[in-house]
């Protein structure tokens, strides 16, 4: 069993022990994921680019906990939709390699529809 599968199983047990599955529809999990992503944004709100690259220990810890929340909800959402998270991530990366060929986009932030 891979580490991601073990985490997914641990999350299933955590949720089952609390009888929370009834609240974990894909819609609710997507909304919770968005909320946690917003909390991650708050860690960086008002920081300069330089400050965001050199977080103080408390800021780094806060970011870590919010990243964990985002990741956990993402794992639960993928599970609720019966998606293999690693497979769809790799599929998307392969798609993006075609959309953003390195020789055409190196150093550019343009969207693939702009070049």
Describe this structure in words.
This protein is mostly helical and 115 residues long. The chain has a domain at 26-99: Helix Hairpins (Orthogonal Bundle). 72% of the residues lie in helices and 0% in strands. It contains six helices and no strands. The chain has helices spanning 3-18, 26-44, 49-53, 57-80, 85-99, 102-105. The longest helix is centred in the middle third of the chain and has 24 residues, at 57-80. It is globular, with a radius of gyration of 18 Å.
The shape is globular
- Point out poorly predicted stretches: none
- Radius of gyration, whole Å: 18 Å
The number of strands is 0
State the distance separating the first and last CA atoms.
42 Å
CATH-defined architecture of the domain at 26-99: Orthogonal Bundle
Task: Please indicate the percent range of residues in DSSP E strands (runs of 2 or more).
Answer: under 5%
**Helix content estimate:** over 70%
CATH topology name of the domain at 26-99, in short, is Helix Hairpins
Structure, briefly:
This protein is an all-alpha fold. It is built from 6 helices and no strands.
Q: What distinguishing features does this structure have?
A:
mainly alpha, 0% strand, globular, Helix Hairpins, 115 residues
Topology:
Elements (H helix, E strand, L loop, with lengths): L2 H16 L7 H19 L4 H5 L3 H24 L4 H15 L2 H4 L10
Helix pairs in contact: 1-4, 2-4
